[in-house]
Amino acid sequence: MSSEIWKYSDMIDDEDLIMLQKDFITVRDGIDYYGISYRTLVRAAMEAGAFYKIGSKMVRIDRRALEAYFRKHGLRRR
Questions:
Q1: Pair 31, 41: CB distance under 8 Å
Q2: Domain coordinates in residue numbering, the chain
Q3: Which CATH architecture has domain 23-78?
Q4: Which of 34, 57, 63, 67 makes a 20 to 30 Å CA pair with 73?
């Protein structure tokens, strides 16, 4: 999608540009950006295969895989 981002340039704000630069996001980033609860985000990330636990506490989510999952299931950012 990054190669086609210019098509949506009139709908993109600074927050979107910052998120597009990240390959992996934290759970807090996902909650703030997508406007969904912790449980919903983690469940979607796990179903998408985008949930990575590093060590005992650090969690990262593959943003591209998560967004592909959202597009596949017709979900949008609030």
A1: yes
A2: 23-78
A3: Orthogonal Bundle (1.10)
A4: 57
